[in-house]
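JOB MANIFEST
job_type = single_chain_structure
chain_count = 1
residues = 213
[input]
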Amino acid sequence: MTASTPIHRAPDTPTARQTLALAGVFQAASLVDELARTGQVESRAWETLIRATLDTNPESFEAIYGGHPNNLRRGLDVLEGVVGRQQANPVVLRYGFSLLMLMNKLRGNDAMLDELGTRLTRIQGQAEHFGETHENVIASLGEAYQETLSTLKTRIVVQGDPSLLQSRMMPERVRAILLAGIRFALLWHQQGGRRWKLVFQRGDLKKTLDQLG
């Protein structure tokens, strides 16, 4: 049984919430890159993203990412590169910023938002029956992404090992992670995140990353 109180409460400020939501976006970007190149992903990072996508009505902000910032450690590490303190993988950055662009397109499409909401409600029922990371659930999340977001003109082209990308369940897993990235991108926007802030409020982002350890 999951405790409703987070083990470690992150600073409860708008900047902290924006930083954690943005970490979710870049965690998705990082996992897409890893999956496309190696066929493997780190399970804690993966499960955090899938659970966040399925939980469309969380009891608190912290509940979205499982209550502990380390569940988003992969994304927080990528953000360290975004603010310039260490080398960032350009492919991961491209995926991350593409997810933010795609989210903006989605925000202007009420019909697609409604369709995604309907699909996610249905997939939640599947998750209750099979388990959140069961391949039937992942396949449904991938299909939801393919039949909605991938029909937009702004599309994310994933680079990697062609034989891996064509292997069983790989397209579905990649799309499920991209959908998780969109979920966190929407969350980032809801919390007041904007592209221009990444340029003009870099100092605040650095300070928050330091607080999150």
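[summary]
The chain has eleven helices and no strands.
Confidence is low (pLDDT under 50) at residues 1-7.
exit_status = 0
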